Amino acid sequence: MTFSVYILYSLKLDRFYVGISKNLDKRMYHHNHGESAYTSIGIPWILIWITLKVAKYEAEELEQKLKNLSRVRKIRFMKKYSDGVVDFELLDQIKP
């Protein structure tokens, strides 16, 4: 089983959201249909970066590291590990 570690972006809030999931499609549905209280105010959320981890503990460790990064450092991280970038155009438009 693999775990997705992902970063979402809300144009409405101009904010990132970091999470992990075993089923990213289902999780994205929850984020964008108001079924997650924390993210309901930022709809629509756009998947901007993703990586897969086999071990749950690895996914959780990366999630915590990403959550603790500042906005500028999250952007730098995504650009450094660009193989996980889903939307390069959007990433280039986001101001640090």
Notes on the protein architecture:
The protein has 96 residues and is α+β, with helices and mostly antiparallel strands. 39% of the residues lie in helices and 25% in strands. It has helices spanning 24-32, 56-67, 71-80, 88-93; strands spanning 3-10, 15-21, 45-53. It has a three-stranded antiparallel beta sheet. Strand 1 (3-10) and strand 2 (15-21) form a beta hairpin. The model has no long low-confidence stretch (mean pLDDT 97).
Strand segment count: 3
Q: State which percent range the strand residues make up.
A: 25-35%
Describe the global form: globular
- Fraction of helical residues: 25-40%
What class would the helix/strand composition place it in?
alpha+beta
- Main sheet? 3 strands, antiparallel
In what order do the strands lie side by side in the largest sheet? 2-1-3
Low-confidence stretches: none
Distance between the termini: 35 Å
SSE series: EEHEHHH
What is the radius of gyration computed over CA atoms, rounded to a whole number of angstroms? 13 Å
Question: What integer is the average pLDDT?
Answer: 97
Number of helices: 4
